């Protein structure tokens, strides 16, 4: 099983945004050393407790401080941007870090309506044109964009020897079918969805049309995970994590609606010791039909978040090495 990490640079109480971003870079270095497949960072805007807002600034730092792990946006929120600019950014990254760059494509606003309006005057209109925006982006990444002037074709320079790999991110059949139609890889955010992943992933595979940059179906399922040396400790961390996400004030009691959000969030988590988590991840991969599992965690403590990822990666890589010797 391939293991990857998605990180949003959470800012816990008592920590600065600078510290949170440094923690993300350090986490990427650890993931690289442990042999994880890829490390993606999110794009969120004006959200309390999250520092990850501009992936294109943070990714070059991560790329320069790692060696082999793939790096990428999870996701660039395309309705906010012109496809040409998004292609230029990721082509630049792919030129600096050859054969290591992914471009995750998403249609969510990434924050409040006010933040969406500040980023784009017509977000809803652009979101409705996701198919056209995606096609235009892919044409730029393929370096074959048709220009109105045949003597001056557009090129999203610098054009790398190996283009960024496009991934459509989503939580429903709509995104899966768009990925299949456009010929991109597909990442299903199971930790954000109430839909059944297996059915949606199968729709993607059934309808996939080979693209220039992705020749065959490729699926990531992203799951929320909390791992600790012992099960009880993992449960404690999971409770603390859910509460922090629902209500940043740790002293105030939860309302009934917040309690409902707490329970819903925890129900989507995989929680346990390394061996328990490994079994659950293998079950997810088999049930969902995913090629790769991406680990997500919003544990507020950077030490506990890093420990969680490390324990999972170590046990998965340990079993992989054992199989390689047999």
Automatic annotation (TrEMBL):
As given in the record, the signal peptide range reads: none
Q: Which GO terms describe its molecular function?
A: oxidoreductase activity
Q: Which Pfam families match?
A: Bac_luciferase (PF00296)
User: CDD domains, alphabetically?
Assistant: Flavin_utilizing_monoxygenases
Report the enzyme's class at the first EC level.
oxidoreductase
By its UniProt entry, which InterPro entries does this protein fall under? Answer: Bact_Lucif_Oxidored, CmoO-like, Luciferase-like_dom, Luciferase-like_sf
Q: Which UniProt keywords are listed?
A: Oxidoreductase
What the entry lists under SUPFAM superfamilies is as follows:
Bacterial luciferase-like
Q: Where is the Luciferase-like domain?
A: 1-291
EC number, as in UniProt: 1.-.-.-
Entry similarity comment: To bacterial alkanal monooxygenase alpha and beta chains.
Protein name per the record: MsnO8 family LLM class oxidoreductase
């Amino acid at each position: 099983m391939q293991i990857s990490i998605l990180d949003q640079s959470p800012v816990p109480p008592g920590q600065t945004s600078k510290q949170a971003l440094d923690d993300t870079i350090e986490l990427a270095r650890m993931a690289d050393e442990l042999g994880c497949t890829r490390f993606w960072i999110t794009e969120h805007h004006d959200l309390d407790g999250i520092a990850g807002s501009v992936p294109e600034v943070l990714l070059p730092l991560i790329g320069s401080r790692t060696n082999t792990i793939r790096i990428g946006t999870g996701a660039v929120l395309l309705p906010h941007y012109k496809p040409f600019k998004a292609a230029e950014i990721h082509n630049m990254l792919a030129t600096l870090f050859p054969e290591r760059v992914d471009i995750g494509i998403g249609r969510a606003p990434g924050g409040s309506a006010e933040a969406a309006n500040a980023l784009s005057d017509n977000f809803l209109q652009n979101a409705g044109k996701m198919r056209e925006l995606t096609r235009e982006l892919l044409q730029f990444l393929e370096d074959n964009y048709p220009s109105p002037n045949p003597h001056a074709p557009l090129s999203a320079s610098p054009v790398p020897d190996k283009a960024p790999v496009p991934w459509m991110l989503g939580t429903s059949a709509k995104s899966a079918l768009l990925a299949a139609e456009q010929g991109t890889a597909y990442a299903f955010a199971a930790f954000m969805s109430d839909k059944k992943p297996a059915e949606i992933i199968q729709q993607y595979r059934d309808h996939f049309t080979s693209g220039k940059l992705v020749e065959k179906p490729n699926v990531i399922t992203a799951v929320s995970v909390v791992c600790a040396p012992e099960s009880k400790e993992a449960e404690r961390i999971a409770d603390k994590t859910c509460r922090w996400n629902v209500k940043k004030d740790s002293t105030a009691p939860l309302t009934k609606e917040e309690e409902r959000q707490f329970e819903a969030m925890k129900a989507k988590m995989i929680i346990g010791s390394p061996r328990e988590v490994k079994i659950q991840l293998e079950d997810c991969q088999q049930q969902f039909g995913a090629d790769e599992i991406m680990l997500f965690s919003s544990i507020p403590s950077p030490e506990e978040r890093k420990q969680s990822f490390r324990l999972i990666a170590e046990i998965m890589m340990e079993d992989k090495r054992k199989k390689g010797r047999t």
